[in-house]
Write a structure and sequence with these properties.
Helices cover 36% and strands 24% of the residues. The strands form two sheets. Strands 1-2-5-4-3-12 form a six-stranded antiparallel barrel.
Length: 314
């Protein structure tokens, strides 16, 4: 439409009519005279409005998704962080449970043997100190630790203290080739000396060349004079092999130690020896033998055998 005087007057007239209809509609309320026209318009233009709305909504959703992408990324990053923290916590809890179990086992051993112990943590291994099988623990002279004290854990004999600093000490492990400890056989009381062989079983020389020893027999420490460097009764290991007796003055057996020397964590230094030898009281309970299943075979006569028997009877 061209911008003329007539068109301007028509626009003013339409605006005036619109305001008049709005005024009448507001004053009429629910009984408005234009309500019928409104419903008719809704009937005609409603489907068109819904179609346009359905066409526009996906675009609006996409825009909202882009707008919220930053916050969603932050939320995902936070969830990933929380998940990693939870995994770390679970791992830490597993380690704490393992260390608590080690500590409880060590306290049990100390209680059964009546050993006064000072708990310690392994903080270093022998690679930094030479080629010996040694570990460093986080207690020293300031904690009452002295040279030639027995070191144990919840499984048995770990070794002995060799050098002591103010806040740390070095422990020579029982599997070191330079390590020797007096041993006593369970029940039979046969005495011997166990020596370390690195990652192989301990080698034990029994003083009695005719001693009766079988696989599965167990050994404990015999103890030293004045209980240094070894207190009595600490579990050493289980006999895994016995050399044939050749009439020698001594007899050689090989013993699998109770302690796993490659997995040391919580240990205890015996700072007070027991008032009496605990003998075999600290040894763990013997495993119950697994019953051997028996199979009973029942022979059922065959049909041919039954027929032959009947023919013989006839």
């Amino acid at each position: 439409m061209r911008d003329t005087r007539e068109s301007r007057l028509l626009l003013v007239l339409l605006v005036a009519i619109a305001f008049a209809l709005i005024t009448v509609d507001i004053r009429g309320g629910q009984d408005s005279p234009v309500d019928g026209a409104r419903q008719a318009a809704a009937t005609v233009f409603g489907p068109i409005e819904n179609g346009v709305s359905s066409a526009v909504d996906p675009v609006g959703n996409a825009v909202a998704a882009v707008r919220d992408s930053g916050s969603r990324h932050d939320r995902i990053a936070q969830l990933e962080h929380d998940n990693a923290a939870l995994k770390a916590k679970l791992g830490s809890d597993d380690r704490n449970r393992s260390r608590l179990k080690q500590l409880n086992n060590m306290i049990r051993v100390a209680g059964e043997g009546q050993y006064g112990i000072k708990g310690a943590e392994v903080i270093g291994i022998g690679a930094a100190q030479g080629f010996s099988w040694t570990v460093t623990i986080d207690v020293g002279a300031n904690d009452g630790i002295k040279r030639d004290m027995t070191v144990l854990n919840g499984d048995g004999l770990v070794g002995r203290v060799t050098t002591v600093g103010p806040n740390a000490a070095t422990v020579l492990l029982a599997n070191d080739p330079d390590f020797t400890v007096g041993t006593r056989m369970e029940s039979s009381d046969e005495l011997g000396f166990a020596s370390g062989q690195g990652d192989r079983p301990l080698r034990v020389q029994l003083l009695n060349g005719k001693a009766k020893v079988v696989k599965g027999d167990r050994l404990v420490t015999f103890g030293s004079q004045a209980d240094r460097p070894f207190v009595p009764g600490v579990p050493v290991g289980v006999v895994s092999r016995v050399d044939p007796s050749g009439g020698d003055l001594t007899r050689t057996v090989y013993v699998t130690p109770y302690v796993s020397f490659t997995k040391l964590d919580i240990v205890g230094v015996v700072v007070a020896a027991p008032k009496k030898d605990p003998r075999d009281e600290v040894l763990p309970p013997k495993p119950k033998p697994t019953p051997t299943p028996t199979v009973t075979v029942t022979v059922t006569p065959s049909a041919n055998a039954s027929a032959d028997g009947q023919q013989q009877q006839q």
